[in-house]
Amino acid sequence: MKKFLSKMPDALVRLLIVFIGLAVIGAFVVIVLIPKDLKDVKLQWAESTKTEQAKPVKYAGFHACADCHEKLYEKKKTGYHKDLSCETCHGPAKAHTEDPEKVKPVIPKERTFCPLCHAYNPSRPRGFPQINPVAHNPLKACSTCHNPHDPKPPTTPKECSACHGEIARTKAVSHHVQLECTTCHQAPQQHKISPRSVKPTKPQTREFCGKCHGKNAKDRLAKNAPKVDMANHGEKYVCWQCHYPHSPEVEE
Ligand code: HEC
Ligand code: HEC
Ligand code: HEC
Ligand code: HEC
Ligand code: HEC
Ligand code: HEC
Ligand code: HEC
Ligand code: HEC
């Protein structure tokens, strides 16, 4: 060891002494000077839990509003804004639920509010309803045209083709041109308002197509429909595994 040290340059030895000195002082501070309480992690956590719990509760939560605003609560539940909490827009409202006459929540009427979520932004998911707030019906509050509790474009599309244009255009030049969409799909009115949450039915069985294409088919439109032997034609597969229902073609 001595030999090793004597080989070292003096400057390095001095540096080594300084470092060891610092380490000793550091250990002394941590072990002796800092009080035990300050080093006890469990105690610290318990303290901060207490501090947090002592803070006043500001948000009442979504369901609290239903007690007194039942109609709005029910209305919002089925609309496009069903996943938004009341307090997302009206701010923390716990105090209001305790004294509704004195404390009123904020009402975000200014045009800058809704674009926080609806201003065009390419990073938003495809299909999310977006507008350009500068060009989209300027000068009027958003809620003059859209009900914030049940928003939709002011006119609901009447035709399936408004949203399913490609299918409608395909069917229009196919053998199924005479068939209404609703012959094969039961579409509740609500589907046109909340298409993602309320879905129409789709045919499930071979027998469905058999209503017109079976040998003894009785449907009003069955008269002109070519017939197949339901027991054997296409075997066990459902018909639309071979025939595209919106444009069934049979090559001659
Ligand atoms: C205990 C009953 C009660 C509860 C719970 C309650 N409210 Fe109210 N709220 C009222 C009453 C009463 C009014 C006043 C109605 C009026 O002025 O005509 C009101 C008015 C409002 C207003 C309009 C304020 C204004 O300036 O006109 C908003 C917004 C509102 N409440 C939001 C909420 C939200 C959000 C919740 C849930 C966190 C909620 N309320 C829970 C009773 C309640
Ligand atoms: C997307 C934001 C948004 C959400 C979510 C929302 N509100 Fe509102 N709320 C508004 C706006 C904007 C107005 C003002 C409407 C206007 O200008 O007429 C309003 C108005 C109100 C009013 C005043 C009376 C009225 O009918 O206009 C009450 C009460 C109210 N909201 C309660 C609620 C409750 C309860 C919920 C949850 C069930 C809720 N709001 C969810 C934005 C929202
Ligand atoms: C916290 C984000 C948020 C805020 C704030 C918000 N919205 Fe929405 N909005 C949504 C979501 C989420 C949907 C549903 C989108 C979907 O179903 O794909 C929606 C849907 C809509 C739709 C339906 C569009 C369509 O395709 O039919 C309209 C209209 C709308 N909001 C208007 C408003 C108005 C007006 C306000 C202000 C009062 C507002 N929004 C504030 C998140 C928000
Ligand atoms: C003068 C009436 C009017 C006002 C004010 C208005 N809108 Fe609209 N909004 C419409 C109409 C009409 C449509 C449907 C046709 C269209 O897309 O332009 C629509 C469509 C929308 C859509 C659906 C877009 C889509 O691609 O599905 C959203 C979201 C929307 N508006 C949000 C807003 C917001 C946010 C504001 C306030 C900054 C606002 N609107 C103000 C009339 C209005
Ligand atoms: C406002 C636009 C709109 C209108 C109007 C509309 N649809 Fe849809 N429809 C949609 C959207 C969006 C989807 C896709 C939902 C998804 O992928 O989650 C859909 C899905 C469907 C599906 C597939 C359901 C599934 O489970 O895969 C069928 C069937 C359908 N629509 C039939 C119809 C028929 C029939 C009409 C007319 C009576 C109609 N739609 C009107 C928007 C619309
Ligand atoms: C002859 C019956 C028939 C008619 C008429 C019909 N469909 Fe369909 N549709 C089906 C079948 C069968 C499926 C496929 C079911 C499956 O794949 O599970 C389907 C699927 C769909 C789907 C789901 C997406 C897809 O392309 O597979 C949509 C959306 C749809 N149809 C919309 C429409 C609309 C809109 C019309 C009217 C323009 C229409 N359908 C007319 C039988 C029909
Ligand atoms: C495995 C594939 C397959 C399945 C599954 C299938 N088909 Fe076909 N279908 C064909 C082929 C290939 C033809 C043309 C040759 C022929 O007439 O057999 C055809 C022809 C037809 C024709 C025209 C017959 C004519 O005389 O012009 C109708 C109608 C038809 N199918 C209806 C159905 C119906 C309804 C179902 C369900 C019960 C069904 N198909 C299931 C393959 C299939
Ligand atoms: C309401 C009655 C009706 C129903 C239900 C129906 N079709 Fe048809 N289909 C017709 C009529 C009518 C024609 C012939 C139209 C024409 O050629 O003028 C036809 C023609 C066809 C053809 C022959 C196309 C060709 O090239 O000759 C096929 C394949 C077919 N349908 C398949 C189906 C399948 C698959 C289903 C079930 C998803 C179905 N159809 C349900 C009425 C119906």
Walkthrough of the structure:
With 252 residues, the protein is an all-alpha fold. Among the domains are: 62-144, no CATH class; 203-243, no CATH class. Helix content is 36%, strand content 0%. It has helices spanning 2-7, 10-33, 36-39, 41-54, 70-78, 86-90, 94-98, 115-118, 165-172, 181-184, 206-213. It starts with a helix and ends in a 39-residue tail after the last helix. The structure holds heme C (8 copies). One heme C (HEC) is lined by residues 160, 164, 167-168, 171, 176, 179, 181, 183-185, 202-203, 240, 245-246.
Give a brief rundown of this model.
The protein is mainly α and 252 residues long. 36% of the residues lie in helices and 0% in strands. The longest helix has 24 residues.
Essential attributes:
binds heme C, mainly alpha, 36% helix, elongated, 252 residues
Task: Describe the SSE topology.
Elements: H1 2-7, H2 10-33, H3 36-39, H4 41-54, H5 70-78, H6 86-90, H7 94-98, H8 115-118, H9 165-172, H10 181-184, H11 206-213
Bound molecules: heme C (8 copies).
Span between termini: 100 Å
How many strands?
0
SS strand fraction: under 5%
Q: Radius of gyration from the CA trace?
A: 36 Å
